[in-house]
C-alpha cells in the first residue's frame, strides 16, 4: 500500500505540470473483463486503474483519445474513441461503467474492438498508434476462439495489444497469445496491485524506443532546397525525435547539424534535457542557402557524436539531402571514416536530383537508404527509421535501463516522507531515511521517481545467482543487470529495503551482506562492480546453506522484523539435487524463496522444490529476464500479507 501511495504521490505532482508523452497522440482502447469470477469490487478496481492511468495523458480530439469496452457473456461498448474529448467527462464516464457479470467471452470483445472500435467512423480515423489494453483475471471460455480473435486483431499494423493478467487464475499462454509480444504481457498478483504497473505501462505507451542512443541529424541547407523544403526536413526531425524518450541521464540524446557551403552545429547532444524545449528549438533552426558540402556536414556530425563519446550509447547519424554533394570524393571519405568508427548511418534522399549511388555509399547498409519523391513524403518513412534505430540499439547496448518514466527526476526527492503519517496499522516504522539517501545520488544512477518501499513491512532480499560454467560470462552479466535494475526500483536502507547478493558455482561466494553497504548508491555500485563470473559447477545447496547460516543472520544486518526474501536465479540443475531440496526446505522456514529458471536446461521439479509455494518463474532466454521485473516485485510485495 505504501508503494502505491508513493507512486501516486510522485505521479500526481509530476504530471500536474506535464502530462505523459505530450507529443504523441494515441488512441487507447481498454477492454475489461467483467466476468463473475472477479466480483463487483474488483471490477471497480479495474475502473480505478483505467482512470488513474488515463489521467496521466492529455485528453483531446487531437491528443489522446480513450475508448472503453467491457465484456462477460456479451460485450458492452461503454464508449468509442470519439465520445469524450475532455478529461472531466471521460473520467466520469469511466467511473460509471457498470459491472456486467457472466462468463468470460474474451473473443467477442476482441472481435468487437477489431470490427467496431477501430472503425474510422467510431473515432479511429487518425493515423496514430492504437493501444488495446486487455485486462483479465481468468481464462477465457473459448481459448481457441480467443487466440484466433487476437491474431486477427493484431494483423492491423497500427495496433499494439497489451495483455494484463490479474491474480493466479490467469493462463500465461493465453495472455501471451493475446498480447502483441512477450514485452507486452504483464501479470500482477492482485487487483490492488494494478496501480503498481502504471509506470511500466506508461513507458510502453509513450516510447517505442527506450534505449541509449545518440542521434545526430545532418540536414542539407543548400540553395536547391528553398526554405519551405528545409522546414519539411525539420518537421521530419521533430517526428523522429517524438518517438524517443529524451528526459533523464540514460535516454536518447539528439544533435542537429546543417550544411551548405559550411557546416554548423545547431543543436548539441547535451543542449536540452527536455523534449518541449528541444522541439521548439529544432523548429527555429534557420535555412541558410549555398553549396552542398555534404562531407563537412558528416565530419561535423561525427565530431558531435564523439567529443566525447557516451559510454555504451548507440551512435546514429541521419543524413537528409535533396541533391548530390559538391565534393563527392570527400563525401565518400568522410562517410567511410564515420562507418569505420561504428556509427550507424542512414541516408535519406529527397526528390529527383539525388545520386542514389552516393546515398548507398553514405549509409551503413542498403536498408538504411531511403528515397522519397517529395519533401512532403518524409513523414511516411519516419516510423521505419525509428524502428531501425531501435532494433540496432537493442543489439548493441547490453545494459538497458528499465528504470522508466517520463517525469522530471528532480521533483520527487522529498515526497516519500509525506506518506509516513499514513500507516493504517502496526509497526510505526519511520521511512524517513529515504530523503537522506536520495540527496546523495549521483546523476549516473537511475531516476529515483519510481522507487517502491514494498509495503509497511520492510523487506530483506537476498539474490542467489548461478555462476556456473553452463551460463557463460555474457549471460551471467545479464543476470547481474537484472539484479541491478530490480534493486534500483527500491528505496534502499535500514529503514526500507535491504539487499544482499551471493553467487555460486562449485564454491559459494558472498558478494555483500545487508550491512556491508548502507546506501542505495553503494549497493547499486557493488552490484555493478563487485560481482564476478566464476565458471565451474552448480553447488546450489551450498549457496542456500550460506544464505540461511550467514546472510539472513542478524550479525550480518538481517532485521528480525523484516520479511525475508531469497530470489534464486539459475539456468540448470544443481550438482546434488537431494541436498538442494533439503537445504531449500530449511531455508523456506525462515524466508520466502522465489526461483527463476532460465532456458531449456532447468529442472522444473527442482525449481519448484526450491521455491516456497511453488513460486517458480521461467523464461526461455536471458534477455527475457527483464520481463519478470514487475512480476517479481509484485510477488515480493504481496507475499508478506
Ligand atoms: C486513483 O486510484 C485511487 C485508488 O485506487 C482512487 O481513489 C482515485 O480516485 C483514483 N484517481 C483517479 C484520478 O481516478
Ligand atoms: C484538431 O485538428 C483538426 C484538423 O487539423 C482541426 O480542424 C480541429 O480544430 C482540431 N481540434 C482541436 C480541438 O484543436
Ligand atoms: C483535467 O485536466 C486539467 C488540465 O490538465 C486539470 O486542471 C484538471 O484537474 C483535470 N480534471 C480532472 C477531473 O482530473
Ligand atoms: C521486445 O521488444 C523488442 C523491441 O521492441 C523486440 O526487439 C523484442 O523482440 C521483443 N521481445 C519479444 C519477446 O517480443
Ligand atoms: C500512417 O503512418 C504509417 C507509419 O507512420 C505510414 O506508413 C502510413 O503510410 C500512414 N498512412 C497514412 C494513410 O497516412
Ligand atoms: C568490492 O570488493 C572489494 C574486495 O572485497 C572491496 O574492498 C570493495 O570495497 C568492494 N567495492 C564495493 C563497491 O563494494
Ligand atoms: C558447496 O558449498 C558448501 C558451502 O560453501 C561447501 O561446504 C561444499 O564443500 C561445496 N560442495 C562442493 C561439492 O564443492
Ligand atoms: C535422492 O533421494 C531419493 C529419494 O529420496 C533417493 O532414492 C536417491 O537415492 C537419492 N540420491 C542420492 C544421490 O542420494
TrEMBL record:
The keyword GTP-binding belongs to this UniProt entry's keyword annotation: no
Stretches assigned to coiled coil: none
PROSITE patterns registered for this protein in UniProt: VWFA
Domain VWFA per the UniProt entry, residue ranges: 27-201, 214-385, 460-632
Region Disordered, residue ranges: 400-444
UniProt entry tagged with the keyword Signal: yes
Keywords: Signal
Gene3D superfamilies: von Willebrand factor, type A domain (3.40.50.410)
A UniProt-annotated Pfam family: VWA
Cross-referenced CDD domains: vWA_collagen (cd01472)
Signal peptide: 1-16
PANTHER family assigned to the protein according to its UniProt record, in alphabetical order: COLLAGEN ALPHA, PH DOMAIN-CONTAINING PROTEIN
Protein name, entry field: VWFA domain-containing protein
Protein species of origin: Dreissena polymorpha (Zebra mussel)
Amino acid at each position: 500500500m505504501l508503494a502505491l501511495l508513493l507512486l501516486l504521490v510522485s505521479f500526481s505532482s509530476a504530471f500536474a505540470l506535464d502530462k505523459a508523452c505530450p507529443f504523441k497522440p494515441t488512441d487507447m482502447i481498454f477492454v475489461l473483463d467483467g466476468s463473475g469470477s472477479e466480483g463487483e469490487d474488483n471490477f471497480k478496481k479495474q475502473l480505478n486503474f483505467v482512470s488513474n492511468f488515463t489521467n496521466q495523458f492529455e485528453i483531446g480530439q487531437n491528443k489522446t483519445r480513450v475508448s472503453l469496452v467491457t465484456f462477460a457473456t456479451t460485450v458492452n461498448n461503454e464508449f468509442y474513441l470519439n465520445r469524450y474529448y475532455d478529461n472531466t467527462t471521460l473520467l466520469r464516464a469511466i467511473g460509471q461503467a457498470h459491472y456486467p457479470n457472466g462468463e468470460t467471452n474474451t473473443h467477442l470483445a476482441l472481435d468487437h474492438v477489431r470490427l467496431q472500435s477501430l472503425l474510422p467512423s467510431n473515432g479511429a480515423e487518425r493515423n496514430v498508434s492504437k493501444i488495446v489494453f486487455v485486462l483479465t483475471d481468468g481464462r477465457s471460455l473459448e481459448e481457441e476462439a480467443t487466440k484466433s480473435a487476437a491474431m486477427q486483431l493484431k494483423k492491423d499494423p497500427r495496433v499494439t495489444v497489451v495483455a494484463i493478467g490479474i491474480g493466479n487464475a490467469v493462463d500465461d499462454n493465453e495472455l501471451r497469445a493475446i498480447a502483441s509480444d512477450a514485452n507486452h504481457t504483464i501479470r500482477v498478483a492482485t487487483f490492488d496491485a494494478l496501480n503498481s504497473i502504471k509506470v511500466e505501462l506508461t513507458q510502453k505507451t509513450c516510447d517505442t524506443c527506450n534505449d541509449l542512443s545518440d542521434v545526430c541529424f545532418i540536414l542539407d541547407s543548400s540553395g536547391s532546397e528553398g526554405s519551405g523544403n528545409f522546414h519539411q526536413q525539420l518537421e521530419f526531425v521533430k517526428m523522429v525525435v517524438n518517438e524517443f524518450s529524451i528526459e533523464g541521464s540514460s535516454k536518447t540524446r539528439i544533435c542537429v547539424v546543417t550544411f551548405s557551403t559550411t557546416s554548423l552545429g545547431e543543436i548539441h547532444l547535451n543542449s536540452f534535457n527536455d523534449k518541449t524545449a528541444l522541439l521548439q528549438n529544432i523548429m527555429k533552426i534557420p535555412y541558410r542557402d549555398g553549396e552542398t558540402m555534404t562531407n563537412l556536414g558528416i565530419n561535423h556530425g561525427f565530431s558531435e557524436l564523439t567529443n566525447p563519446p557516451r559510454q555504451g550509447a548507440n551512435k546514429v547519424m541521419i543524413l537528409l539531402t535533396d541533391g548530390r554533394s559538391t565534393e563527392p570524393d570527400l563525401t565518400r571519405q568522410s562517410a567511410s571514416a564515420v562507418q569505420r568508427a561504428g556509427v550507424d548511418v542512414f541516408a535519406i534522399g529527397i526528390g529527383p536530383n539525388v545520386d542514389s549511388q552516393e546515398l548507398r555509399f553514405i549509409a551503413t547498409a542498403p536498408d538504411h537508404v531511403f528515397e522519397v519523391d517529395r519533401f512532403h513524403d518524409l513523414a511516411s518513412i519516419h516510423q521505419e527509421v525509428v524502428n531501425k534505430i531501435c532494433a540496432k540499439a537493442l543489439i548493441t547496448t547490453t545494459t538497458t535501463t528499465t528504470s522508466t518514466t517520463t517525469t522530471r527526476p528532480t521533483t520527487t526527492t522529498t515526497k516519500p516522507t509525506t506518506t509516513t503519517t499514513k500507516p493504517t496499522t502496526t509497526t510505526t516504522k519511520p521511512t524517513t531515511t529515504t530523503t537522506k539517501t536520495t540527496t546523495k545520488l549521483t546523476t549516473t544512477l537511475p531516476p529515483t521517481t519510481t522507487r517502491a518501499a514494498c509495503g509497511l513491512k520492510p523487506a530483506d532480499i537476498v539474490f542467489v545467482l548461478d555462476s556456473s560454467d553452463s551460463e557463460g560470462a555474457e549471460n551471467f552479466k545479464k543476470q547481474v543487470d537484472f539484479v541491478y535494475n530490480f534493486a534500483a526500483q527500491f528505496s534502499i536502507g535500514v529503514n526500507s529495503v535491504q539487499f544482499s547478493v551471493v553467487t555460486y558455482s562449485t564454491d559459494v561466494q558472498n558478494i555483500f551482506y545487508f550491512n556491508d553497504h548502507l546506501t542505495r548508491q553503494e549497493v547499486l555500485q557493488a552490484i555493478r562492480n563487485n560481482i564476478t563470473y566464476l565458471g565451474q559447477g552448480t553447488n546450489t545447496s551450498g549457496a542456500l546453506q550460506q544464505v540461511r547460516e550467514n546472510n539472513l543472520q542478524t550479525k550480518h544486518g538481517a532485521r528480525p522484523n523484516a520479511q525475508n526474501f531469497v530470489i534464486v536465479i539459475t539456468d540448470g540443475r544443481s550438482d546434488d539435487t537431494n541436498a538442494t531440496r533439503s537445504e531449500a526446505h530449511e531455508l523456506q522456514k525462515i524466508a520466502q524463496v522465489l526461483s527463476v529458471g532460465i532456458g531449456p536446461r532447468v529442472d522444473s521439479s527442482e525449481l519448484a522444490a526450491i521455491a516456497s509455494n511453488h513460486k517458480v518463474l521461467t523464461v526461455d532466454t536471458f534477455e527475457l529476464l527483464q520481463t519478470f521485473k514487475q512480476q517479481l516485485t509484485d510477488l515480493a510485495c504481496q507475499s508478506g500479507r
